[in-house]
Amino acid sequence: MAVTDLGELQRRAAERAAARAGGTDRLRGHIVCDGLVRIFKTEGVEVVALQGLDLVVDRGELLAIVGASGSGKSTMLNILSGLDVPTAGIAQVAGFDLLTLTAKRRLRYRRKVVGFVWQQTGRNLLPYLTARENVELPMSLVGRANRKRAMELLEMVGVAHCAGRRPDQMSGGEQQRTAVAVAVANDPEVLFADEPTGELDEATAADVFGALRTINAELGVTIVIVTHDHTVADQVRRTVAIRDGRTASEVRRTARTGADGLEEIVSEEYAVLDRTGRMQLPANFVDALTLKDRVKLTLEQDHVQVRPGDE
Ligand SMILES: Nc1ncnc2c1ncn2[C@@H]1O[C@H](COP(=O)(O)OP(=O)(O)OP(=O)(O)O)[C@@H](O)[C@H]1O
């Protein structure tokens, strides 16, 4: 799918999301993490996996979260998916407070409010069911099997031709696109995808990202893709980087009309400023000027200047 479609798809996603929410004023903060802390204790040793992570995702957004191995991505996703409970902080998704969920509400949350796509295709699909039956299964779990809808969803993600095939008769990319259809079978408000393209080559991965973008635009589902693959930034409008259990920076891509009248995509890098005014400089900025220990700050009329401190 041409990346220049991104602006149009995002506009459509926002419209659908607003329709679902009952107005544009209710779009803010579909997912909210505030000062999220998760400490693991093993054999007397404490590991701080999340140390005050802040994140706000609006309704209808398609967002990627990137970070190196060990940065806390899985820990965050486990909390947001209701599998784990944070040590401290705020975690809310679609109005559900994930720190105080009862067992009953947790089940409802996991069955109806959120959908998942995992890296391992085996975790997404049952091997002895066809693609269509796989999509129908979560529907029947809530008593709403609907063959026509299952076919529509398979069509939306571009794998209608696989409806009658079992996973072992499909390619890795087709399986993951089917997994996207399964994940939205019960019309969830939020979809979490954990390394959905981790086992695929680049071209096949692009098809899966295309399927996620279409679902985002057509159904207005808020989508969070978690990955260590930085090329995902080319596939979405907003990419948030996590470092050491904190949100460190983000890249936003916006469509602009250039001087030649053609739409162009512009990428801009942002740092996340927390409530106490802390921010982290991107590693490449620090390296480029060999900044260390102390930097000199000057407040200008409309910006803040950061210089090496030893000048
Ligand atoms: N159950 C656990 N017990 C102890 N430490 C843990 C546990 N889960 C995660 N950690 C630690 O927390 C930190 C963050 O881990 P996490 O799995 O969230 O990172 P990640 O970004 O998802 O990495 P990867 O991309 O390799 O999956 C790591 O230092 C990890 O060793």
TrEMBL record:
Cellular component GO terms held in the UniProt record: plasma membrane
Pfam families with a match to the protein in the record: ABC_tran
Keywords: ATP-binding, DNA-binding, Nucleotide-binding, Transport
The keyword Nucleotide-binding is assigned to this record: yes
PROSITE patterns: ABC_TRANSPORTER_2, SPOVT_ABRB
Alphabetical list of SUPFAM superfamilies matching this protein: P-loop containing nucleoside triphosphate hydrolases (SSF52540)
GO terms assigned for molecular function: ATP binding; ATP hydrolysis activity; DNA binding; transmembrane transporter activity
Stretches assigned to the ABC transporter domain: 34-269
Organism phylogeny: Bacteria, Bacillati, Actinomycetota, Actinomycetes, Micromonosporales
Boundaries of every SpoVT-AbrB domain copy: 268-311
Protein name (Swiss-Prot/TrEMBL): ABC transporter
Secreted recorded as keyword: no
Protein origin, superkingdom: Bacteria
InterPro entries: AAA+_ATPase, ABC_transporter-like_ATP-bd, ABC_transpr_LolD-like, MacB-like_ATP-bd, P-loop_NTPase, SpoVT-AbrB_dom
